[in-house]
Amino acid sequence: MSLLKRLGKTKENAIREVEHPNVEDWRQTSAAKTTPQAASKGFRADNQGAYPHTAETPRHIHTQMASAFAGRRTAVVEIDQIQELRLAIHRRIVDEMTVNEQMLLAQGEAAREQIKALISSYFDKEMAGNTYSLSRAERMALVDDICDEMLGLGPLEPLLKDPTITEIMVNGPKDVFVEREGKLLLSDTRFYDDAHLMSIIERILAPLGRRVDESSPLVDARLADGSRVNIIIPPLSLVGPAVTIRKFSQKALGVEDLVRFGTLDEKMAVFLEACVKARLNVLVSGGTGSGKTTTLNVLSSFIPATERIVTIEDAAELRLQQRHVVILEARPANIEGTGAVTIRDLVRNALRMRPDRIIVGEVRTGEALDMLQAMNTGHDGSLTTAHANSPRDVLSRLETMTLMAGMELPVRAVRTQVASAIDLIIQQSRIKDGSRKITHITEVQGMEGDTIILQDLFRYVQDYIDENGKSIGHYEATGLQPSFMEKFQMNGVELPNSIFRGKNGGGKSA
Questions:
Q1: pLDDT given at position 446
Q2: How far apart are CA 361 and CA 81, in angstroms?
Q3: Cβ partners under 8 Å of residue 385, min gap 6
Q4: What's the CA angle centered on 400, arms 397 and 401, to 5 degrees?
Q5: Which of 40, 238, 264, 390 has a CA-to-CA distance to 3 between 20 and 30 Å?
Q6: 52: preceding bond cis by omega (within 30 degrees)
Q7: Contacts of residue 357, Cβ cutoff 8 Å, sequence gap at least 6
């Protein structure tokens, strides 16, 4: 019996299904794999139910994207022909480029339009000698790809320029995911192979004097715009080179933006501004991607311009608006394994720089002890962040990190240091719908026996999940007044008591 009969299909129906594929049938019959025949035609094998796609239209059987690198546009010609044409244009540029054209290339992005015109001229020369048929849009797409390859980071350039994308995750050359509005999406961006992806990685690291190879297969780096990059390659990564880029916002967000996004409400914003101006020591805690650095940046905007600020970070992400700011950035070890400067080294050095405020991007290890000592020795108003799932958890983490400094301290002594140093904990979480919320604003009241006493002042209450999967809730005050009210008076900060009255039951936060 033939295969078609076993499937219950006639030859005519089979041909009709191939010529006019149905989206639902395709999704049911090609869950995660494509046949070798489909792969040879450039069909994409994706898990249709795992992640939504960035394209607006349903993703059924379709031709490969025009660029072998960016995969952004539909092509008429086969993918190997596009790649062959791209390489041919590259070879012609290298072989025939004049000295003046080399000088033009050396200008980089400043001369991008002239360079695109130059690439177009070489494109015309190459097209005169072959039979490829490309539309005007496909021609412009190929010129853009070659220009991105020569001047920037190739396929990553369109994603880096897209302001709606906040994170880029490259899982090998064929799978590139992006985060948009807090949700993961599968993009059409693709690299030609591992070698092409590695060339882009080397271009990221070259200006920084860093390297990645089998002997040193992971590295943290920073792009020119401040975006944070993590790279890990085989043999540690089994899917090929993996690149994660946390994009650096070109626009510094203000507290009004956070209120508009629903991260907090107006009463909480007024209270946090008063806390910073009253020189309270504030710790922002939360999970990865919960928006801790953004909140820290907003809090720093409340610091008076007359104060000297020293910021300390692994990768400089904070964008302070004040003028009197000293920005310090940690340095990893060089190729020989020497020359590393840690966050802890910078915190100790900052104490000798006459700071009014010390802002540490994140405490991870032994620098927590130095940070706590700074807060306890006259550097009030310091700000920092830490990874934790709740206000109580972050205190436990601080204890652990303090002991990582190598000092054999009794647990009670460590807890006493933490309780006297930290005044306020801001707990931030990433909700399932992708939104970021400040779920708790908690006061650290002090010690009672061997336990640190915490008191919630504000919290986020989730009411329900709507039909679109969005979290609908509200912010409320607990009705409790903090014990540090005298600090507001001492620093001339006025704060109405009505902020703390009962459950505000205010407007819903979506």
A1: 92
A2: 48
A3: 283, 284, 285, 286, 292, 293, 296, 360, 361, 362, 363
A4: 85
A5: 40
A6: no
A7: 303, 307, 308, 309, 310, 379, 381, 382, 383
DSSP 375-407: HHTT-TT-EEEEE-SSHHHHHHHHHHHHHTTS-
Which amino acid would we find at residue 505? G
pLDDT one-digit tens code per residue, 161-206: 888 999 999 999 999 999 998 888 999 888 888 988 998 898 888 8
The label of the residue with tokens 């949700």 reads 183
229: its two tokens:
């990059």
Q: What is the spatial distance between Cα 236 and Cα 86, in angstroms, rounded to a whole number?
A: 32
| Predicted TM-score of the model (pTM) | 0.72
Separation CA 129–CA 82 (nearest Å):
15
Contacts of 257 (CB under 8 A, 6+ apart): none
Q: Are 476 and 444 in contact (CB under 8 A)?
A: no
Closest by CA to 142, choosing from 86, 98, 196, 65, is: 86
Query: Domains, the chain, ranges and CATH?
Result: 47-151 (no CATH), 157-246 (3.30.450.370), 255-500 (3.40.50.300)
Calculate helix-pair angle for 367-376, 391-403, nearest 10 degrees: 110
Please report which confidence band the pLDDT of residue 132 belongs to, taking 50, 70 and 90 as the band edges.
low
Contacts of 55-63 with C-beta under 8 Å, sequence gap 24+, read: 55/188, 58/23, 60/21, 60/22, 60/23, 60/26, 60/27, 61/21, 61/26
Give the distance from CA 317 to its chain's centroid. 11
Q: Could you write out the DSSP letters of every residue in 38-94?
A: HHHTT-----TTTS-BSSSS---S-PPBS-TTT--SB-SS-HHHHHHHHHHHHHHHH
Q: What is the pLDDT of residue 509?
A: 43
Other beta carbons less than 10 A from residue 485's beta carbon: 13
Read off the amino acid at residue 253.
Answer: L
Which DSSP helix (H) or strand (E) runs through 441?
A: strand 436-448
Say if residue 133 is exposed, middle or buried (CB neighbours under 10 Å; 0-12, 13-18, 19+). exposed
- For the chain, the first-to-last Cα distance in angstroms comes to 59
Render 109-177 in DSSP notation, one character per residue: GGGHHHHHHHHHHHHHHHHTTS-----HHHHHHHHHHHHHHHHS-TTHHHHHH-TTEEEEEEESSS-EE
66/138 Cα distance (integer angstroms) = 7
pLDDT digits (tens, 9 = 90+) for 74-102: 333 444 566 677 777 777 777 777 777 77
- Alpha-carbon span 179 to 166, nearest angstrom: 6
Block residue for tokens 């806390």: 275
Beta-carbon contacts of 287 under 8 Å, excluding residues fewer than 6 positions away, are 387, 388, 389, 429, 430
Which tokens belong to 402? 């303090």
